[in-house]
Amino acid sequence: MSEPFRRGRGVKYPVPIRILHWLRAVLILGLIACGWYMAGRAEDDPTAGILYPNHKQFGILVWLLALVHLTLRWRYHALLPHAPETLKPWETRLSQAIHWLVIALTLLTPLLGYAMSSSVIDGDGVPFFFLSHVPEFLPKNDTAFALFQTLHRYCAYFLLACVVLHIAGAVKHRLQDKGGETDVLPRML
Ligand code: HEM
Ligand code: HEM
């Protein structure tokens, strides 16, 4: 078996998972920064015409990539590296809980964004690269729009909090145990 696909201590994640991890990381951090910037501007801000459609279409792309990621995890399940044995049990549980929260939130946040954009009255629709518009299934309704807007915001910032913890964990083990078993960063590089 080739090196990246062996299982156990010190081995790496399969190449497709590593590529997808960094692609999703860039897109998600970019979407949070873009969303935060957009939401703080007036609706007639000159950047709105560029930022809103791109936030929506890249957000939908992240949702599709989250499905691809789950498929790859299932496909490569037997080859995913184990949690390092020298981690304390609470550290293993915390890191796994954060991985699963991040996975769930990258599916839920774009769906709530779509629901918000799909229920707004007189909105600009939901573009997606080669499709002119994604069909909007929800009825136009101010109350539903306000609810989805709030849920989208909470989910996006909760995702950010989880990602910050996730990065803090990787950096902590890098600094404390560089080259050791709990230094998991090289498994993702
Ligand atoms: C993982 C994907 C996504 C992330 C991380 C994300 C993140 C965010 C964040 C952080 C905000 C700012 C919230 C605030 O401060 O009020 C925001 C706003 C917004 N998002 Fe997303 N978003 C994602 C996907 C989507 C999708 C798929 C759509 C629509 C199809 C969408 C539509 C919007 C809209 C319209 C706003 C502006 C809301 C306002 O003006 O109050 N988002 N997003
Ligand atoms: C939005 C940004 C990010 C997301 C959504 C994310 C998501 C994930 C997920 C779901 C996993 C579990 C493995 C898998 O199922 O594919 C993972 C693993 C990992 N991530 Fe991230 N990640 C992000 C950013 C980062 C950054 C910036 C770093 C570097 C400091 C990082 C370092 C790692 C490492 C080292 C692992 C392997 C952990 C282990 O083997 O125990 N991630 N990431």
Describe the structure.
Helices cover 63% and strands 0% of the residues. It is an all-alpha fold and 189 residues long. The protein has a single domain (3-188), classed as Transmembrane di-heme cytochromes, Chain C (Fumarate Reductase Cytochrome B subunit). The longest helix has 35 residues, at 142-176. It binds protoporphyrin IX containing FE (2 copies). One protoporphyrin IX containing FE is lined by residues 28, 31-32, 35-36, 38-39, 52, 55-56, 59-60, 62, 106, 109-110, 113-114, 116-117, 126, 149, 152-153, 156, 159.
The level-1 CATH class? Mainly Alpha
Structural class designation: mainly alpha
Q: What is the domain total for the residues?
A: 1
The CATH topology label is Fumarate Reductase Cytochrome B subunit
The succession of helices and strands, N to C, reads HHHH
Poorly predicted spans:
1-10
Give every kind of bound small molecule, once each: protoporphyrin IX containing FE
CATH superfamily: Transmembrane di-heme cytochromes, Chain C
Q: Which overall shape is indicated by the principal axes computed on the Cα atoms? A: elongated
CATH architecture name: Up-down Bundle
Please state the CA-atom Rg, rounded to the nearest Å. Answer: 19 Å
